[in-house]
């Protein structure tokens, strides 16, 4: 009994889409302002401005920076805006929030600007496992972008995928 083994996955028209391929390279920095606050809770404008002016912002060159405060302090919007003015000449991107917020914003911009015309009416599988911190929201944003144009959407690996969407025949 000698039947040839055929790799149906390799011969299919299935397109694999890996969000990890779009991960922007660069250092991620979580900048916590709590140490610039009185007892970690009170923002004193004069002291805060002084610390910002004395800080070496050049060390964030080409980094992605998430500005946050990990205490229960109430931080006015101007404080983050002030820090952003110092980071602007150096950082690739500055956001208010944690590192997951940073990744979500980066992927939002990437997916928004993505050209998906090559995927029109094609079966697409979105690769699930990644070694880079691809945020969960990126997968949802990708669905919004792909569903209107693709023939079908699956998640996982070609050998064991989960069907998510199939365009209805009209």
The number of distinct helices, counting runs of at least 4 residues, comes to 5
User: Which structural class do the helices and strands define?
Assistant: alpha/beta
The helicity comes to: 25-40%
Distance from N terminus to C terminus (CA atoms, Å) equals 44 Å
What general outline do the C-alpha atoms trace? elongated
Can you write the helix and strand succession as a string?
HEEHEHEHEHEE
Question: How can the largest sheet be summarized?
Answer: 4 strands, mixed
Mean pLDDT across the residues is 92
**Poorly predicted runs:** 6-11
User: How many whole angstroms does the radius of gyration measure?
Assistant: 22 Å
Counted beta strands: 7
Strand content: 15-25%
Oligomer: single chain
Query: In order across it, which strands form the biggest sheet?
Result: 1-5-6-7
């Amino acid at each position: 009994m000698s039947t040839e083994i055929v790799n149906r996955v390799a011969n299919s028209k299935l397109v694999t889409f890996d969000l990890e391929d779009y991960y922007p390279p660069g250092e991620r920095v979580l900048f916590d302002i709590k140490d610039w606050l009185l007892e970690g809770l009170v923002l004193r404008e004069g002291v805060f401005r002084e610390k910002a002016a004395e800080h070496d912002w050049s060390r964030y060159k080409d980094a992605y920076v998430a500005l946050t405060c990990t205490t229960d302090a109430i931080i006015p919007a101007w404080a983050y805006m002030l820090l952003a003015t110092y980071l602007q000449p150096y950082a690739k991107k500055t956001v208010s929030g944690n590192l997951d917020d940073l990744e979500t914003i980066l992927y939002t911009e990437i997916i928004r600007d993505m050209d998906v015309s090559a995927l029109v009416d094609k079966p697409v599988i979105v690769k699930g496992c990644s070694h880079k911190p691809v945020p969960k929201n990126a997968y949802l944003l990708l669905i919004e972008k792909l569903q209107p144009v693709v023939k079908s959407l699956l998640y996982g690996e070609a050998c064991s995928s989960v069907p998510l969407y199939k365009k209805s025949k009209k």
